[in-house]
Amino acid sequence: MAEGGDHGGRVPPSRALDPIDRDILRILQTDGRASIRSVAERVHVSRANAYARINRLIHDGVIRGFSARVDHERAGQGASAYITLKIVQNSWRTVREQLEALPGAAHIALVSGDFDVLLLVHAPDNRTLRELVLTRLQAIPEVLSTRTLLVFEETDLHPMTPTLSTSGEEPV
Asked: Other CB atoms closer than 10 Å to residue 147's CB: what's the count?
């Protein structure tokens, strides 16, 4: 995945997105391969304006990259699981680095509640998944406990479901 908005650890100040920016985001989330010309036509701006807006969204870190949505089963990764982890307090950065290196790790989140980390993994089969949990995850010294939730079926939702902002403005 091509990453955008790398600022050496510095996060640029957030800029308000106008309706055209939000329309551009919707188009690119639906079809990350859309051409600048196509995007410009659909949001009724010039190609130069669309190009500048997309580059600004990348530079500002709003667009973090472009990727393909994969059917994991068809790609030979038929076993998926969400794994919850309890970790040693203040060990998040160390644990995150080790989780990022795991084969099949797709999503890592630091969360609140009964556990500390939520990890989504994809593996070729349950045997590989079991080995990942019992051998790799539980060998991380900062991991106190794990719980594995097998995914039986999953559905990708539309990339950007409209929601109301907290200020009661138009859907974003």
From this structure: 13
